[in-house]
Amino acid sequence: MSLDEILESPRLMMKLSFPPVMLQLMEEACKSEPDFAVLGKIISMDPALSTTILTLVNSPFYGLSQEISDLKRAAIVLGTRELLNLAVTVTYQKHISTKVEDEQYKIYSDWMLTVWGAIAASLIASRICPDQADKVYLCCLLKDISLLFLRSAAPSEIPNLAQLDSVARSYPGQAEAENEMWGMNHGALSQLLLSRWKMKNIDCPSLLHHHALEELDSFELPTQAVILATKWAEMELGNDSAPFNVLQFELLLQNALNMDEEVLEDFRGVCRTKFQSMLSILGMGEGGEAANFYNYSIKSLQASYFMSLELLTAEGGIGSIARIIGRHAKLNWDIVDWELALKSPHRDVYSLFKAVENTGLEKVVANCPLKELPWSKRGNGEAIVSRSILFGRFKYSARGLSPEEQKALKLYFRFIGQAYEHYCAKQHLIEDRAETLDALPLGVATLDMAGNIFDMNEEMGRYLGGASISGAKGFNELFSMGVGTGLGKSWDKFLETESKTSFSKILCVSLRTGGIPRDACIYVSAYKQKRGEDQVISVVMEDIREISESQIQALKQRDFLEGLIDSMRDVVLTVDRRGNINYASARFSRIFLGRNIFEIASPGDTFTGRWGPDLFEQKKSVVEVLLKRTDSAGRPFELVISRLNGPGEKYLIVARDLTHIRRLEDKLKRQAIFDGLTDLFNHTQFNTLLEREMVRSRRTGRPIGLLFFDLDGFKHVNDSKGHQAGDEVLKLVGDILKAELRAGMDFPCRYGGDEFAVIVTEVRPEALEKIGNRIRFKIEKKFSGKVTISGGITVLKEDDTPAGMLARADRATYEAKDLGGNVLVWAK
After folding, report:
1. What digits encode the pLDDT tens for the residues 53-77?
2. Are 568-662 and 674-826 equal in CATH topology?
3. Which residues fall in a coiled-coil region (predicted)?
4. In sequence order, which residues have a C-beta less than 8 Å from that of residue 357 and are 6 or more positions away?
5. Which of 377, 378, 373, 406 is nearest to 392 (CA)?
6. Considering only CA atoms, which of 78, 87, 114 is closest in space to residue 28?
7. For residue 679, which of 618, 722, 737 has the smallest C-alpha distance?
8. Distance, CA of 526 to CA of 492 (rounded, Å)
9. Closest CA relative to residue 590, chosen from 612, 563, 571, 567
């Protein structure tokens, strides 16, 4: 039957619907100011209710000095609202007890949680929202009514009921399970039921969120009071509560209510007294006195807690746990004659220990089933339990233990149960791992991120030739000293590259462990890991001696080939049929590995084929390309491509960087064209240019001219200041020519020595003379008249040859010299 069908069934809805007295009390409770006349009339309708309320009023619940015999007097002393809350509680308890409880379900545990929660909610609200305390009491009383209703009307509709001892106690995943089955949580269902039962006036938003402890601060104060009270009830009541969690919640409650420890203890005392009085009047016992944590003071909880913490740092196996418990028993309870069974952290078997007068501890048996333990002491003793799992048992002989001491001993072993569970889950596992690691022939070390050792085991020290952490701390340095070879550049890259998180290498070396050198193959692996806030490097080193001789030779050959390839300046690649690079020389692996050769390389101008995998169809190919090592424009490489033998289509590519060769070629070309000192065209290029421009002039009809000159005063500079000063003069003259002439149209040349020639295109005679004189003035000014020029100028004639035109300009230069220099003369 679905939830919707249950809610639409009058028969089932009537099963837990409230009697008229309860409805009238609820209606009165919803008023801002309840009327005592109405309340008294309602209570008087049920004589048993009236008697129960008066009994409760005169109980230690309120601690009144004089007995009260009538309701009116009770209302004057306690207040109408308090009297109303009592009436609602008593009526509610009697109603649900008669309607819900049956042979399969005893409501006792759930009612205890309900009563403690309601009383605690009212007390908490009286501190943080006093005007809402009565309403909070009522809301907390009714928060789980949906679960009680379903337990009575349709138990199959409660998720995971078979695993629950109490329907009102929360468990992990409860809200998710309820939402999946009902489409809402049980708080929302309680609200819905109250509405169906004509209690629409009860405004309790806290019902929806009474388990939302993690979101406590996001709610209004009345809801916070209900949340804290709900959790407090679960912590203080029942054997299932983990004692560590109880103490942690007491601290949370202390902070939430802004109390010190002493005030909180008094607060617990008030809640405990009211709770016990309520149970007594309602005819309900508390169960085992030691089962509930509210019967212990906070100080006693703390004392057991701090003793149990010693188990969390114990070292030396479960024998060390037995010694700790034995010491605690002797110091706190004077128990010296005892036996202790402890469950194995790994299996469902136990070890039995007993106290021995001289040696202190004796292991009687190990790995023994629980029922076969050879106990010598009788009785059940104290169980060591956590989350309903039996982790051990402590049996002892002791006389004169008071009830309070026995109670404290029970509490101690409740804390020991949870502490031992934590030990089994963490510390013992760490010890097991350490023992296993020490037993294996593995060298283990921990390094900082710079590669310095700050911890290593004995085996690693032996691998490193007996090295210790003192002195040299760099792992690679110690490795080189102990093994005779370093880890190579790949280790340095591993340390330097943040994104590289692992390193592995196999080296065939000669080890000196034990003083006698022997051949070995060492496998070294390293991993960057985060430990807390720090980053470390974990290194594992292993001698893989059991591999075959042929494998060792293969590894040695591999190391040799890798070393050979790494020493080459060329890039060595292997690619698949599509051109995907699956191997690259170690120095270039980060750049090329995983990329496609046809995407990162483009063929040069001389390539005429189809660029792509078709290139592999040839037995051997040589092609020049621009290869992009990064996102740059690319560098010139020559690729030599060969097919590899073996399974699958794989190809070897040896890429030779042509950058240096191309630069050398460019340099040689420049030297063939330009003068090395002045960066002007040289003598050879002058003749080529003059012949070319004469042909072009005759073809286009555009005139050209020639200026030919040498330097006046240059010999004096050379003789007086040296050839370096003379070279500087020549450079400056070259700079003037390049600055004053038209790039691409005029061609300045150094003819030889201090002689210069300038081919000027598309120029008339008068313009040629102006250009020549402008150059002459610039040179004269540059050197303050100490260096000038004497030159001849001429234009192309119809029947001129290059030699004839040059000879004519040269003769004009001599005429300029005869005229005293610093002048240009037209050739005749």
Report:
1. 788 778 776 777 778 877 788 777 7
2. no
3. none
4. 336
5. 373
6. 87
7. 737
8. 12
9. 571
**Higher pLDDT pick, 1 / 378:** 378
Q: Which CATH architecture has domain 674-826?
A: 2-Layer Sandwich (3.30)
- CA dihedral (639, 645, 649, 650) positive or negative: negative
515: alpha, beta or left, given left = phi > 0 and alpha = psi -120 to 50? left
Triad 621, 625, 627: Cα angle to 5°: 120
Domain locations in the chain as residue ranges: 3-282+290-295, 299-431, 440-555, 568-662, 674-826
The per-residue pLDDT for 691 is 93
Alpha carbon distances (Å) from 705 to 62, 685, 761, 792, 793: 128, 17, 6, 11, 7
Decide if 519 contacts 504 (C-beta within 8 A).
no
Average pLDDT over residues 29-33: 75
DSSP 8: T
Return phi, psi of residue 602, to 5°. -125, 140
Q: What is the CATH number of domain 299-431?
A: 3.30.450.40
Q: Which of 138, 143, 145 has its CA nearest to residue 28?
A: 138
CATH number given to 3-282+290-295 = 1.10.3210.10
Backbone angles phi, psi at 336, to 5 degrees: -120, -10
Token output for 600: 């990162």
pLDDT tens profile 679-695: 999 998 999 999 999 99
d(CA 361, CA 354): 6
440-555 under CATH 1.10.287.130, yes or no: no
Q: In this model, does residue 631 exceed pLDDT 80?
A: no
pLDDT (tens digit per residue) in 310-348: 998 888 788 999 999 999 999 999 999 999 999 988 788
